[in-house]
Design goal:
The protein contains 12 helices and 9 strands. The protein is an alpha+beta fold and 331 residues long.
């Protein structure tokens, strides 16, 4: 981390350094739909609706989850530098775009666990490859579930006898989404080439093409309905390359629940990274409204599923996704 977090540095310099680390949080399509406003004694996290995904995420649920993840990452980064962050969610009743207000609090010596979490933030990747190995052991699972529960979010493991049902729901979601020309157009808009200097979006490598061929990947996604092929690939990964399927779920289903889900997600992902495990998203049966209750039933949930993850030891490394510079995310 930058020396701008050294003792005696001005608050704005410290805040910028913390934000630079926090923006390594995951977001839908790597859209990075967040902004930060630095005040004299706190940092506000704001939703950036200009980076919304109106087709796949019409209510802004995933956008707010992404902002929750970056809020969680900001808290982790602050603790790793010895601060005791205090977070207030939706602090302004008249402005719901301000999702969280983070005060750094007093500063002391960071606990080893906090420093390890910050190290995990730097190396964590969303990995779309097939996974191997065993599911998390009981001790790790209990730690993951407790981390989610601290945010009033449930972490629920899918039973083995429901794996095929969930695979079918994901495949059905793939087919329905990719049959929609508007969905394909929106997805294509977020395929960007890092080689050509992009600071957001997904590399063409995520779709099996060299990064430099991002324009060709965009054209292919817009033009062709690849739902059958992608559905088959996802189903294969679920049945053969996912030691564990798990969902983050909440009792309620609105902005507070979505923000809490993102903060819980960040804590879960960092604990997985520290254990040498990775996660990838299978949110199609949550994004397709007609499939969401079916997924909830398959998982035995009384609440609302917010994210579906497959978890395991990655068979291939994943490159780091690009991020926007701090100057671009300051409000």
């Amino acid at each position: 981390m930058s020396d701008d977090t050294r003792p005696g540095a001005g608050f704005h310099d410290v805040a910028r350094a913390l934000i630079a680390e926090a923006t390594k949080a995951p977001s839908s399509h790597n859209s990075q739909p967040w902004r930060f406003r630095i005040h004299d004694h706190h940092i506000d996290v704001l939703a950036d609706w200009q980076r919304s995904l109106p087709v796949v995420d019409p209510e802004g649920r995933e956008l707010i989850i992404s902002c929750g993840a970056v809020t969680g990452a900001l808290e982790v980064t602050a603790r790793a530098r010895g601060f005791t962050p205090e977070t207030e969610v939706f602090p302004l009743p008249h402005d719901f775009d301000v999702l969280a207000r983070v005060r750094l609090g007093t500063r002391g010596k960071a606990a080893p666990d906090d420093a390890a979490c910050a190290d995990a933030l730097a190396t964590r990747r969303t990995n779309r490859a097939a996974f191997a190995g065993d599911p998390p052991d009981d001790a790790l699972w209990d730690d993951l579930a407790a981390a989610a529960a601290a945010h009033d979010v449930m972490l629920v493991a899918a039973r083995e006898d429901t794996r095929e049902t969930i695979a079918d729901l994901v495949a059905e979601g793939d087919k329905e989404q990719l049959a929609d020309a508007a969905f394909r157009a929106e997805l294509a808009c977020w395929v960007h080439s890092t080689t050509l200097g992009s600071h957001d979006g997904m590399s063409a490598a995520a779709f099996g093409m060299p990064d430099i061929l991002a324009p060709a990947a965009r054209l292919a996604i817009r033009t062709f309905d690849m739902g059958d092929g992608i559905a088959a690939d996802d189903a294969r990964k679920i049945m053969q390359g996912s030691p564990l399927l798990a969902a983050l779920a909440t009792q309620g289903d609105g902005k507070p629940a979505w923000l809490a889900t993102g903060r819980a997600l960040m804590d879960v992902l960092l604990r997985l990274e520290r254990a040498g495990l990775a996660a990838a998203y299978l949110n199609q049966p949550i994004e397709v409204a007609s499939l969401r209750p079916k997924l909830g039933a398959a998982l035995g949930l009384s609440g609302s599923p917010q994210l579906l993850l497959r978890i395991g030891q990655p068979s291939l490394p994943a490159p780091a996704s690009v991020r926007r510079p701090v100057e671009d995310v300051l409000a």
